[in-house]
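Subject: DUF4295 domain-containing protein

B.,
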Amino acid sequence: MAKKVVATLKTATGKDWAKVIKAVKSPKTGAYTFREEMVPVDQVQDALKK
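Prediction pasted inline below.
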């Protein structure tokens, strides 16, 4: 299962953000869905561990 940071964005506050897209497998059907979230760059690894 591939996990990847797709884009890095900058805001006016000076904090860098990254868009994290994760493939999540449904326990009921076995199909994969994709979950997207915006996280600060320094917390990307923590977001991928969830």
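The two ends are 14 Å apart (CA to CA).

T.
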